[in-house]
Design a protein that fits this description.
Elements: E1 21-22, H1 25-34, E2 38-44, E3 47-53, E4 55-57, E5 61-67, H2 71-76, E6 80-93, E7 101-112, E8 114-115, H3 119-130, H4 145-149, E9 151-157, E10 160-166, E11 184-187, H5 209-215
Antiparallel strand pairs: 1-10, 2-3, 2-6, 4-5, 5-9, 6-7, 6-11, 7-10, 8-9
Length: 217
């Protein structure tokens, strides 16, 4: 896929497989909306580190959170970080393993991290993160002041972002097409199971409608 949208900076300029890339904000947000795990990379005094985190998005920002003592998030304060979200859609098998690949959708976001200190924005960000996959914020106990003090929220603008998408079968060498080897791709299909009650759940408490509407019961 190609895009008429220009990259926001040289460091998110796509250089390989440009035909699969896009800087279109709509494409970027569609992938972020479909993903569930963000890998957050920062440079620390002990060297670079990348950790998986839940995330939430609004129109122009991606939020991640963790414990206030989280070393990665503390290192991200006012520093450049990179957030990557990848969805695996299938495996691609070529006539030669050299051309094996994967079908995927991926977004890379770079920029200066910002600690969310405003109380209202912080609660809103935590709601976005909680509701990113399932709208479940309102179904549980609201966070206490202690909960909020123990939580650090980081915001990153979506201004510097790029997307890349690969889909379909292999791209084989012309001379291999008449050979004896199989080529094709295997789509990845995932599904959720039925909700299972906690072992210490009181009798008579049913899953909220926000859960059953998505997963059944």
């Amino acid at each position: 896929m190609s895009s008429e949208h220009e990259p926001a900076s040289d460091r998110v300029q796509l250089r390989r497989g440009v035909h699969r890339g896009s800087h279109d904000p709509v494409v970027i947000r569609e992938i972020l909306a479909a993903g569930m795990v963000a890998h957050v990379g920062v440079s620390t005094d002990d060297g670079p580190i990348v950790l998986p985190m839940a995330y939430g998005i609004d129109e122009d920002t991606i939020y991640v959170h963790g414990a206030s003592a989280n070393a990665l998030l503390r290192s991200a304060r006012s520093h450049e970080i990179c957030i990557t979200v990848t969805l695996l859609d299938g495996l691609v098998f070529a006539r030669t393993p050299f051309h094996n690949s994967m079908d995927y959708r991926c977004v890379v976001v770079r920029g200066a991290a910002r600690v969310v200190d405003d109380p209202t924005e912080r609660v809103d960000a935590l709601r976005l993160i909680t509701d990113h996959v399932v709208d479940n914020w309102s179904a549980g106990r609201p966070p206490s002041d202690l909960d909020l003090r123990k939580t650090l929220v980081i915001a990153l603008p979506l201004a510097e972002a790029s997307a890349k998408i690969r889909e379909g079968g292999p791209v084989d060498e012309p001379e291999d097409l008449d050979g004896p080897h199989w080529g094709g791709h295997v789509p990845l299909v995932t599904s959720w199971g039925i909700p299972i009650d906690s072992v210490d759940l009181r009798v008579g408490i049913e899953p909220p409608a926000t859960i059953t509407a998505v997963f059944g019961k």
